[in-house]
Amino acid sequence: MEQHSFQPLEFTRLPEAEMRENARAFYERIRRRRTVREFSDRPVPRELIENAIRAAGSAPSGANMQPWHYVAVSDPQLKKRLREAAEVEEQALYGHRASDEWLRALEPLGTDASKPFLEIAPWLIAVFLKKFTIDEAGNRRKNYYTAESVGISVGFLLAALHWSGLATLTHTPSPMKFLAEVLERPEHERAYILIVTGYPADDATVPAIDKEPLERIATFL
């Protein structure tokens, strides 16, 4: 494999006071991100989605393999097909696949097999993980740390969408093979997650839940 050339790092050293303010401001903004299940059908400019995916594509990955592919869907007929396929899997999940323990954990959130947001929200972003990449010549290249890399990239995507002023929902029906079938993705791509995004409905509500405090999620040594 050809050795990469190197270039100077683009890095701006900020005054410590500005760094503290930036860190505080980002936390205050990102902590207000909530999973939304009630969306408006108000259109969202494609440019917002494109830039969010560009941000996701800037994420670090194992050996810079970038083992992800994003499919952004706004077509109503495709969204309808995705909803129908997802609800088949969700009905099976709630009907017999999920354990009693898992169903009890979901119960306080009020979720069920009905997923109308898959049709109402203006954009669905299906994320696919590539265990290997096939180049234009048909050569197969193995990718490394794929789950970790795609997970980081999705985190970037969620932060970018929230920063842009959009609501989001992470949807993980199980199994998700239907995503590749409906969206006609190649066999070497595996569905990872479906992100629903748009404006929240005017009367949207979210569960009154708390996040663990710093001392419960971090240890400083």
Could you please describe the fold and organization of this structure?
The chain has 221 residues and is an alpha+beta fold. It has one domain (35-201): NADH Oxidase (3-Layer(aba) Sandwich). Helix content is 40%, strand content 16%. It is built from 8 helices and 6 strands; from the N terminus they run ααβαααβββαβαβα. The protein has helices at 16-30, 46-57, 76-97, 100-106, 117-120, 146-163, 177-182, 214-217, and strands at 68-73, 123-130, 132-134, 140-142, 167-171, 189-198. The strands form 2 sheets. It has a 4-stranded antiparallel beta sheet. It has a two-stranded antiparallel ribbon with strand order 3-4. α2 packs antiparallel against α6. The protein starts with 15 loop residues before the first helix and ends with a helix. The mean pLDDT is 95.
